[in-house]
Sequence to fold (85 residues):
Amino acid sequence: MKRIRVKMVGSGASDDPYRVDLPNYRIIEADTDRGIRPPKAYAIIEVPRDELTPGGRISRATLKKKYKGSRWERHEPKIGSEKPV
Fold:
C-alpha cells in the first residue's frame, strides 16, 4: 500500500457520503473530520501500489484494466492532483 493525498467528493447525505472517488482505498486522515467539506476537502489514503504509476500517481489505465466490466472501466476519478505522501 502507498499513501497519497487526494480530493474528496460527496455531500455527506446518507445516499451521497463523503468519500474518495476511487474503487480501492483506505482513508488514513480526512479533512471532513475537521469540518472541511468537499470540494475543499482532501484525504490522505492508502491505495494498492499496483494502481499507481512509478511516480506515485493514480494509473487510470490500470484502473480501466483491473476493474474491466465495472464503472471504473470508463470512469475518470475526480481526485484532483494527487500527491504522494
Remarks:
- The chain has one domain: 2-84.
